[in-house]
Design brief:
The structure is a single chain. By secondary structure, the protein is of the alpha+beta class. Helices cover 61% and strands 14% of the residues. The chain folds into two domains: 3-246, no CATH class; 303-490, Alpha-Beta Plaits, CATH 3.30.70.1230. The chain is built from 13 helices and eight strands. Strands 1, 2, 3, 4, 5, 6, 7 and 8 form an eight-stranded mixed beta sheet that branches. A hairpin with a 2-residue loop joins strand 2 (355-360) and strand 3 (363-368). Helix 3 runs antiparallel to helix 4. It is rod-shaped and about 120 Å long.
Length: 491
Amino acid sequence: MNAARQFAIALAIPASGNIFANALFSATSGEPGYLLWTLFYDGTVLVALNILLARRFLFRPVAGLIAGDDTPEARLALERLPLRTAMWAVGFYMLFFPIGFFLSPLAGSYGGNFDLPLDYVYFVSLVLAAVAGYLVFFLLNTLVTRIKLHLFATRGLILPGGGGNLRRRMIVVISVISIMPLLLLMTEFFWFVRYRDGGGLDLPMENAIIMDIAVSFLLIGIVIVFLPLSLTRPIEILVAAVERVARGDLTVRAPVTSNDEIGALTTRFNEMVDGLNERQAIRETFGKYVPEAVAEQLIRDPGVLAGEERIATIMFTDIQGFTGISELLSPAETIALLNDYFEVVLQPIRAEGGTVNAFIGDSIFASFNVPVPHHDHAARAIRAGLAIEQALEGKRFGPGRDIRLVTRIGINTGTVAAGAVGGGDRLGYTIIGDSVNVASRLEGLAKEMGGPILVSGTTRSAAGDSFRFEELGKVPIRGRAREISVWRVLA
């Protein structure tokens, strides 16, 4: 980007406004040649000399930052560029604009035939200097925004904001577009009137008012053009970043393009996204070692792991004859087979909202309705079991892809206790209770009773009539005094 050229244009615009005002003045005061003197002096001093010195003393560090010389001094120079250059413009115009009046007689008739008092000259200089400082400030705010966007796009550089004051900036804007035109009209009526008609300023009141109105419209037009770029552009950038985060994109970062409260808000936004990324990383890492639903609950509400009692449906799965299969494989091949098998079995459990609590050898211990509640947890567990059997049908595993794995499944519904147990800094989320033991025993009975999916009478009742069952009668369960009703789920 050619930031140096845009910097020069920003410094030249106030002089262009002065040339416009002097063109009106020359046309209405009977001094047409004065415009030529204005073009010469303003072009030489207020434009060329102004740009040359300002680039030397103010813009050089910023140019270095754009070129890759990233230093704290260069960053500070960029942040302060609008304010410093605005103050520079005020001082430059206050010094050199009166000099233009004093040197105008050297231009003869082109310099105008004026005999103006010093207070008038300095008042006009003050007005022009204030307008120049105002214009330069907002023009360079827009330029700084572009530079920061360029640095962000090319080098991913985000410069922290802060230190500015949006309220003061708005006060300046409102003052320029409201108070300045009123001030010009008031001075025409109550001060400059004594210099008219022979007092050194041969300009009718009507023409003076027309000129003041034209200059005011010019100022208001520039405000309308550049105010949105200076004040609303940083907001638009932040809103676009927020919308991307709302869509789930946590890679977004918003460049800090303003040195005010909006810049500070953008900095906090980036910190918030970093926090969300960290939270997401914790969730993903946590989910590899503890059940994903437990990790999510723990992040959202750690108190839920203190312990709770709930009706839940428990599922146990086991590979039939796995001991014999593992004897034919190397340890590495066994692990690879199990990983492939678990990948197939886990998908239906997760799809139905189940939580995998533990891998016990070739077995899976899963729960439904704890910790994530589902009113139809028994039906979900049965659907998951049927989906597992269907997914394994025709599927082959092992290094030669010639091993068929038959899975037995036991499902029971009852009261369980769930929470974090352990000691010191070693905790684990677990589900305990007689209902868990019954589900494990049902999985063991599946081999003897021809499985593949056995459920207890409580699960049969809770699942409703959406499935087909075959009653196998009451069966004694090791560790329980009473027999339980056992049902086979039919495909």
